[in-house]
Amino acid sequence: MILSSGERFIHKHFHALTHRNFRYFWLGQCVSLIGTWMQNIGQSWLVLTLTGSPFLLGLIAAMQFLPITIFSLFAGTLIDKFPKKKILLVTQSVSMVLALTLSILVFTHTVQYSYVMVLAFLLGVTNTFDMPTRQSFNIEIVGKEDLMNAIALNSTTFNLARIIGPAIGATMMALLGPAWCFLLNGLSFIAVIYGLTRIQTTPYVRQKKQNVGIFREIKDGFVYISRDKRLAQTILLVTVVGTMAYNFNVLIPVFTKDVLHLKEQTYGVLMSCLGIGSLIGALTMSLRSKTGPKMAVSIVCSILISIFLILNGFATSPYVTGILLALNGTCNILFATTCNSTLQMYAKDEYRSRVMSIYSLVFAGSTPIGSLFTGSVASHFGANGAFIACGLLCLIPCSIIILLYRKKPDSSGDPAGNQA
C-alpha cells in the first residue's frame, strides 16, 4: 500500500522519473553535481591559498565562463549534427580527466596558479558544448509533455547539491585537504558516464545543408528567435536577469564583511538561505510542471528578483538579508526553469540546440560581464550600492521589454514548434 501510494505520488508530481532513460541520467547527475560543488569550494580555497588575492580568484571564475561567452554560438550549430549522447560521453569524460588532473597536481605538490587557470579554461570550453547538449537532450529522453518536470527535477538536484556539496567539501578540506575534493569529483563522473551508456533513445540529428556556413547558421538561429514573440521576449529577459541578478558570489561575501560586519559563518548561512530558497523554487516547479511553462511566471519573477535586489541594498540585518536572499533564490529558479522550458518546448527541432546555445550565452556567458560590473560598483559604492545598482539595472530593462512585447502581435508557435 505504501509502495503504491509512493508510485502514485511520483506519477502525479515527478512523472519524468517514470522514464527509464531519464532515471539513469538524473541519478548520475545526483552524484556528479555533489562532486562539482565540492570542486568549486575546493578550487576557490586552493587559489586563495596559492595567491591570497581575491582578484586572481575572480579571474579564475571569469576564465571558466569566458569560453561560453566566446564559443557557445558556434557550439550550438554543431551539436545537432551529432548524437547528443555521444557528445555528452565526450564532455563528461573530459571533465573527469580535468578534475583528476587537478587532484594529481595538488597531491604531488606541483600545482601552480597558472595550471589552475588553464584547467579552468579547458573546463569552460568543455561546458560550452556540455550545457546546451544536456539542455536539448532532455526532450529526447522524456518528450515535450514531461520536459518541464524534468527540468524542474534537474534544478532540484542542482540546488540540493549546492547545499550538500560545499558542506562535504569543507569537511573534506579540513580533514584531508582540497585534493580529495578534486579526486572525488573526478570519480563522481563515473556515475554519469555509466548512466549515459544505459540510455537507449532515437537521437535527433539535423541534416547538413549544402553551402551553408557556420556564421549563416548562427544568423538563422537569431532570426528564428527574433520572429517568435515568446522566444524573443524570453531570451531578452534572460539576458538582463542573467547579467545583473546572478552575482551573489561577489555580493554576499562583501556585504557580509563590509555591511553586516560579520564573519565567515554568517556568509555560509546567507549562501545557504539562497540555496534553500532555490530548492523551494525547484520543488514548486516540479509539483506544478504539468501545467506547462507560463510566460506570466517569468515576467513576474523578473520584476520580483529586481525588487528583492534593491531591498537587499537597504538591509542592515542578517535576518532580513537571509529572508530576502531566500525569496530571491525561489524567484531565480522559478524564472530560470520557466524560461528554459519555454525555449525548449516552443523551439523547432532543427533550431533547438542553437536556441539553447544562445540561452547558455546570455545566461551563463554573461557571468564575466556581470561579475566585473558588480565588483567594480562594490569597490566604489559598497555592497549596498552594488545591490541597488544591479536591482535597478535589472528592473528598468525588464520593464521596458515587458511593455514593448505586450504591444507586439503574438507570433508564437505551438509546443510542437509548427510556427516560427
TrEMBL record:
Domain of life: Bacteria
InterPro entries from the UniProt entry: MFS_dom, MFS_trans_sf, TM_effector
Keyword Transmembrane helix belongs to the record: yes
Chief location: membrane
Sorted UniProt keywords: Cell membrane, Membrane, Transmembrane, Transmembrane helix, Transport
Keyword Transcription regulation part of the UniProt annotation: no
TM annotation in the entry: 21-39, 45-75, 87-107, 175-196, 235-255, 267-284, 296-315, 321-343, 355-373, 385-405
GO molecular function: transmembrane transporter activity
Pfam families: MFS_3 (PF05977)
UniProt-listed SUPFAM superfamilies: MFS general substrate transporter (SSF103473)
Subcellular location(s) of the protein: Cell membrane
A GO cellular-component term linked to this record: plasma membrane
Residue ranges annotated for the Major facilitator superfamily (MFS) profile domain, each copy included: 1-409
PROSITE patterns: MFS
Entry membrane topology: Multi-pass membrane protein
Protein name: MFS transporter
